[in-house]
Amino acid sequence: MVRGSNPLRPVKIYLFFEETAFVEHPLRFLNLEDLLVILVMKRTLCLKSPKEEGEKVRKLLVKLNLLDVSVKIERNKDHLFFPLLKKPNSQEMNKIGEIKGAEICFKTFKTPIRKPKGFIESLENEISFEKLSSLPHSFDIVGDIAIMEIPPEFSSSEKELIGNAILETHKNIHTVLAKFSKIGEANDVFRTRKFEHLAGEKKTTTVHKEFGCQYKIDLSKVYFSSRLSNEHNRVASQVKQGETIIDMFAGVGPFSILIGKKVDKVVIYSIDINSDAISCLKENVLINKVEKQVIPIHGDVRKIIPDSLAGLANRVIMDLPKSSIEFVDVACLAIKPEGGVIHYYCFSQEPSPEEKAIREITSTVEFFGRNVVKVLECRKVKTVAPFTYQIVVDTLIE
């Protein structure tokens, strides 16, 4: 309620009938600040039945695909009124006739106006069907920011309509951005991209939550993918108490921090060459209270691991799919002499993308003087382009 307003004030309810004009109806003294109730008064063919036969009638109408579920079943003292989608044919009438006291009639039903189920449906009267057909029906959500991929044929005004439609149908979203470049086009080393603001608050900073962890992120300065949340959890679930982990391309810490939260007595060296990512990572370590487990390190893994972390790791995470292959030698150096696990991420195309990824990591590990004892798991993480996937290969090496 707005401060200083009168809680008891006259309001009006507007009713309208199908194919008729609005009817104004005064209603006084409701304890609401502002009230506008709109009801559709829908005169519909229905099946009237005694209350005691109600469940039998409902099941029959569902079986015959006659029940209009968009309209609420109504009742009076003795009867139920089931709204029908169409007039029953002779065979259907024969079945209905077997129910004692059932009869077909017309009734005016009241039902609230249905809100659009999603942003695409809410745009049906605003943007042509042909264009809507080319618009992705899903989008990424990072914190309270929605990130859309919009085809180039959409105008600026249409993009604004799309952004506002997402805000209207998803109340948890406060900002809508469109991808303005591919990953790496803003900065190839840091994997950042440019965005176009469509609607809502003009910002790129948010706090993202997944699996009990919180991550402060500036999407314009760091790389982050909410579509990897299950992968973060899958890897964290494999870590055992007492392990030493090197997260070679840690970003804001979604692998490192989740491991630190889930597993006791671990040490995770979290390295990234992007100073903005390390700044976010340091904040996230404090936010999630994993200062004893996660050690953020700013710099190039090619220098840091040989200088100070060689032979320390039970487990190495290589989430840099575009160029992980270029750092396999460093990962092999990081693993303890007796062996350990490498989580290797890459992009691979059909046919047989998993087999290609396995061959790639196995041959490269052997080239640098170590052996793949066993492929623990190989799976598609996500689709990145037609017939192209992000693949993870979990390898046990010695």
Description:
By secondary structure, the chain is an alpha/beta fold. It has 3 domains: 37-112, Alpha-Beta Plaits, CATH 3.30.70; 119-203, 2-Layer Sandwich (GMP Synthetase, Chain A, domain 3); 224-397, Rossmann fold, CATH 3.40.50. The protein has 11 helices and 19 strands. The strands form 4 sheets. A 7-stranded mixed beta sheet has the order 15-14-13-16-17-19-18, with helices on both faces. Strand 7 (140-142) and strand 8 form a beta hairpin. Residues 1-39 have low confidence and may be disordered.
Primary descriptors:
3 domains, six-stranded mixed β-sheet, 11 helices, seven-stranded mixed β-sheet, 19 strands, Alpha-Beta Plaits, single chain, Rossmann fold, alpha/beta
Structural class: alpha/beta
Compute the number of structural domains: 3
CATH domain class of the largest domain? Alpha Beta
Query: What is the overall number of helices?
Result: 11
Helix content range: 25-40%
CATH architecture of the largest domain: 3-Layer(aba) Sandwich
CATH superfamily of the largest domain: Vaccinia Virus protein VP39
Measured on Cα atoms, how large is the radius of gyration?
Answer: 30 Å
* Helix-strand pattern: EEEHEEHEHHEEHEEEEHEHEHEHEHEHEE
Approximate shape: elongated
Strand percent estimate? 25-35%
- Overall mean confidence score, pLDDT: 87
Low-confidence stretches: 1-39
Main sheet: strand order: 15-14-13-16-17-19-18
Question: What is the tally of beta strands?
Answer: 19
Q: Main beta sheet, described? A: 7 strands, mixed
